[in-house]
Amino acid sequence: MKTVLLLIIAITITMTNLYSQNYKMVNVIQASEIIKENKNSEDFHIIDARRESEYLEGHIPNAIHIDPLISESLDKLSKLDTSGNYLIYCRTRNRIIVLFNIMYRIGFENIILMTDGWLAWKAAGYEVEIKVTGDPQTP
Fold first, then answer.
1. Fewest beta carbons within 10 Å, which of 40, 64, 83, 86?
2. 9-46 b/e with 16+ CB inside 10 Å = b?
3. Confidence class for position 94, pLDDT limits 50, 70, 90
4. Can you tell me the mean pLDDT for 106-134?
């Protein structure tokens, strides 16, 4: 019950922040187009907010892994440029809400949330990168 209440509060805060700032929510089709448009941009980054094991099984090409539910996430986020452009996604939607709120509070200015999530990306047949060995890409 406590978890559900915290999730409702996080969603409410997120929706308030999204409507009051210049942040975007997109589906997988829009996300794919944004990724294509920014393919050669050095200030565009994709963040996978799923568990590390899920990331290693497959992710959007060139995505970095930042799980917002582990303590190292703040260290990883602190290495990123807050004025850069970031597309964030997770399996469904829950973790991007948490990640968005962390990024928003730190001062990230340009965040795009892929609300359909990884399952929709994979089901749509978009490109998938699989990390066979080593650590997940980190900033």
1. 40
2. eeeeebeeebeeeebbbbebebbbebbeebeeeeebbb
3. confident
4. 90
Q: Where are the domains of the chain?
A: 2-123
The candidate with the shortest Cα–Cα distance to 60, out of 1, 116, 104, 100, is: 116
Strand partners, 129: 59
pTM over 0.70: yes
Cβ atoms of residues 26 and 112 within 8 Å: yes
Other Cβ atoms within 10 Å of 60 Cβ, number:
22
- Contact at 8 Å (CB) between 129 and 60? yes
Tokens 């066979």 -> residue: 132
Angle, CA of 105, 20 and 108, to the nearest 5°: 30
How many helices (DSSP H) and strands (DSSP E) are in the chain?
A: 6, 5
Fold of 2-123: Oxidized Rhodanese; domain 1 (3.40.250)
